[in-house]
Protein 1
Amino acid sequence: MHSSIHRALKLALLFHAFGWPVNANDSFLAETLVRKRPIQKVLDHQPIKHTTCHNSILTGPIETTMCDYETIESVNDELFGNLSELVEKPFFRYFQVDLYRECPFWPDDGSCNNPGCAITSVDEGEYFDLRLVPERYTGYSGKDAQRVWKSIYEENCFGLSELNLMTGKSPAPVSLPDTMIEVLHEDEQESAAQCLEKRVYYKVISGLHASISTHICHEYLNQTTGEWHPNLNCFISRVASHPERLQYIYFDTILLLRAVSRLGPYLSAFDYCSTGTHEDDKETLQTLTKVLDIAKDAGAFDESILFRGENANILKEEFKTHFRNVTRIMDCVGCDKCRLWGKIQTTGLATAMKILFELDETALDPRANSDLLQRSEVVALVNTLFRFSESLKAVDTFRKLWQEMDAAEAENIVKQTEKATAAHAQAFHSANVDYSRNYFDVACEQSMSALRHCKHSIEENVTQAMTALGHVFNAVLSAFRPSRKERGPGATYGDL
């Protein structure tokens, strides 16, 4: 009782200090872009524990899905518990990957010398025991890490698709916004004018970034004491101060649940006897079945609204190419542990999108297509879903830490974060942007510059291609013209 009163008083003082009204229905999940009190809306939010997609009031619908944020909150405890058991099973614990491929985009001159970055494989093959290499703070940062994320966000160039959509027989109302935020957060009337696939792509990438940031903050190393602990300030700075980032973690979780749900019959028939004992294999299937049941209930992602129309195949190929490049960018990460988890999660998301956007029910039938997925894809899909579920679980921890703070301390954090955010906003309009301040936000703006650049580049490439085609056409015609000998001694090369 006393703690509840203390909490109420603290919130009242905090709201009064900033002139904020108290509204019981004021939730960060109910808004597309949260501009007022973002930190408080994220950390004061109380997750719903009892609801389903079929009977809940949709106070926070998720775009392109048929469900809401509250549903994920209501099932996540159970989902996290079952996934925690599942990823401990031998089949899902070991991941095979070539971790030391050459970076295809730039000289591999960046590396992490921190011992936390290093990992070792379990044998001279390339298997890694994921229990021994948890995803957490490693100290990997600076220009090398910023370059990786910059490249990832710049893979949002959908110039060719937009050019085709605008010039096709039935041109769609597609335009190039000035900032990436405008791509994601339009008024309802304007939202339809944007490329839905582009917004989905960005949400997938942004959700991955936010989830990774949450893990780093949740298992943060105190370099003075050597202890691992949740770092609330880190979480507020990287995620809570920008609620849309947390929204994208929910989004990716539903996307992954939908993929697991569609893959249910295939996963149920999959051979898990490659490792462990028969008892392990039996327990693996039992736990997996519980996850599949949750996925069927909560994985309400409507993939049918994407990649439609006459340009669907072009758009889908670009979507795949962009994401394939993202997975290749992981080879440029200078931290071994970061590279491993980057590869796992990009593979997991790529597998999910493959299941949703490329495969029909016939292809997913285990009797007709028993070799549909490689073992590494199945392991990556399940572990990636676990990482996102664990991120949402970690948010609960941060909310508890926030609730335990006194009003003065909370007010100080809010002021510091607002001051830092204002500085970042000012940096957007500076000619010399300091990427070390807050790369996530800067990348959004830079991505749209890349989009515009891609459009111009494509137009230039098309022009060059048409010119080259003209040269080829002239060369073909010249083959059928009379030779100099046939045309007489007066003919010159200039006549051809």
Protein 2
Amino acid sequence: MSINDEKVKLPINANPIVVHEPRFNQGGQADYYSFARDTIQNGTAEATIYNSKKLEDVVHEMGLKIKQHEENIKFLKTQKNGLDNSILDMQVALGKYQTESESGPENEELSHVLSEQETIEQILRYEKSAAGIWCQLKTRHGTQASHLPLTKDVLGIVAMLGKVDDDNLSRLLSDYLGLETMLAIVCKTYDGIKALETYDKEGYINKTSGFHGLGSSIGRSLDGRFLVICVENLRPYGGEFIADDPQRRLDILKPRLPNGESPPGFLGFAVNMVSIDSVNLYCATSSGYGLRETLFYNLFSRLHVYRTRADMLQALPCIRDGAISLDGGIIKHNNVFVLGKREVDLKFPKSFAKSNLPQDYFEIERQIKEMKWKKERTVEDMQREQALLDHARFNFGIKKEEYLKFLAQNSSYTRQLQAGGERLTPIS
């Protein structure tokens, strides 16, 4: 039997074979390399696109999780700050600062309660001061003294224009201001200041007019310099007031340490711890400003009040305009520390703290405890969210690196394939 006579048997289940014919170049020759390269590239491109899209989706989803954790932490921080501010406001409103018995032995020596009359008597000891002459005039003539041409523009003396609930705090504030400032005369306008002292043609003081003449007329000659403050020329506080506060206390932003926490032992701002008579709360100036946002804001600015020196020193990073502590520490606004024994014999009159306490005192105490509890829970939630955020960022970094490495590898492979095609393409 010859070869031609043999019958070739095909498998019954033979699969059909798809044959792609090669392309031909311009010379009519088959371009087998281009044919093989195109086949490989088509399959590689599809796999690359699929894997690239899959990795991209994973990275995008992980990025969204990171953003969600960041937003959660931001919300919790805002909630915590709101609780901190509410707690501080309530503590200040309830007089959460140390009482006289908690301030040390110095307080026991000066534990007597100061009334307005007692403060006047202390000022009168400075017989040759402008403040002493003014108080003598008020004592003799009462309310009529305010209607005299010389003194009708005088609002009073710094030491008499405010009251402080706590005797120890009163002494600390007067110590911070100093005797000269406590005895300063306060006028509404500059015209009132000009009336207090006049000069002759040579520039010498006229001893027969102004406060000098007034002192001579009552047997108290004015000796030495004295301070006079013009309220109308003071730059007033430009912020908001605490809502529904009959004392119009200033709504000043609470201090924060660099870590965002409230400084321990912070009790409030001195400017808000001074009580002011209703007559001076409004329209003390022609512009309608009261004494708190003008006189006392310029005297104290944002002076902090702390429980102890240790608390005050710990809060140094957030102290800008000075601070005092209830155990006698004083830092001036220019970061000057005041040391040594305190010898203060002039203080603000005492107001009655009980009358300023809200009627629902114990209810507010309960609310403070509840807010502190909520704050603790919020801090715990923040810690959990931070741990989740750190974990998500770690995983994101790994997956992102994997994605970029994948893109780099496939880009390198494509360049190599294209370069190899240029070298191996047959010459027609």
Protein 3
Amino acid sequence: MILLRSLKSQIVSREFFRSKSSFAFAMSEGLKEIQERSQVGKEKVPYKSRYDIRRNKNKRLWEDETRTPEEIAAKKASMTPEDKLKRKKSVLLMGYSGANYFGMQRNPGQKTIEEDLFVAMFKNKWITEESFNQAQYANFQRAARTDKGVSASRQICSMKLPDEVDVETLNKDLPDQIKVFCVRRVTKGFNSKEQCDARTYSYTLPTIAFADHSETVEMEKYRAPAEKLEKMNELLKMFLGTKNFHNFTSRKEFIDPSSKRYIISFKCEAPRVEGEVEYCTIKIKGQSFMLHQIRKMVGLTLAVLRGHTDPPTINRAFTADRLDLPMAPGLGLVLDQVHYDRYNRRYGVDGIHKSLEWDELEPEIKAFGDKFIYPTIYETELKDKSMALWLETLHYHSYTVRPEDLEKSAAQEKEPTDDVEVKVENTLKDEDDKDN
């Protein structure tokens, strides 16, 4: 009897909620009607995977895709055996003189290092036509993007290449100022940029830049005294460690976490005489660098050494103040080495892969630099005197807070209620500014 009563009560309860007079039924019917009205006149949008969007959103075509599906099918049918070769992730060690080039990165309509490299690789069937037109198909990545006029002794590029490649034949199709030293297999997921632990750059300049601004000297006759070199290295030590380098790049704010960079070493080597001019090479090693960072670091150091400002200016440049600082010329800046210490410790001794170290190639790398990179720096400096002309502009900089920044600060203090609007305007202005 008890069981029958329980079943009867459950049936009554279910019938109650199913009845049109119940609140739950009215709510469900109302929601269903609203949903049907919202779908009237709307076409069903096909589903797109977010992974497909993420994969394709950053791809940049180097020619317009105007082929029909029939043409694409015909192209696949006409693929040669070279096109069907299985390609595996490899690294390419190369050097180049950046003179007369608009940087490393490929840029349609401009003469770049990558453009000449891709033309030679396509000619030698290292890459397919699709990879030539769109580098992402070959998983191409460079360790560092050098700007206009900047050279490299040991640039590393990762990409998918055939197992057997002829480096000597490739170099014959490259200009003399670009050379591939070797190709080496790496792990499947290797990325030359993301897995780089540190980068070393060198900056070669005439020692006339060390002379006091009140001295009148000739570049060919000046020889830097030992005390100047000692003071130079003392100033360079002030940059070591983790600092905020927002003053040494463009479009970076002090509060931006990416403004902090770690400098491992910064040292000026002993001078040497090339022709009639004495030169010095400054070497800097850091985890990563921002746009113009090294050139501004060298520029401020030389300004202090020449007496245009005091050493405390260097420490102040790491604070929130936005200072007016000089930027040294691009001539003389060279990507010297790319470091993969963690990769070498993990995979360099596994018996399958080789470490990314190039001791056996050092004589060849040095010979290339001595023939194509550094002579170009010496000849261009003698011809254009870019450093001597730049030194004459150092007194135009204030080495203090810029006037426009002072005006902004004053305006914000007078109108504290408009802080949000001022910040938005400044952000938009920074985004519109374009710097090379």
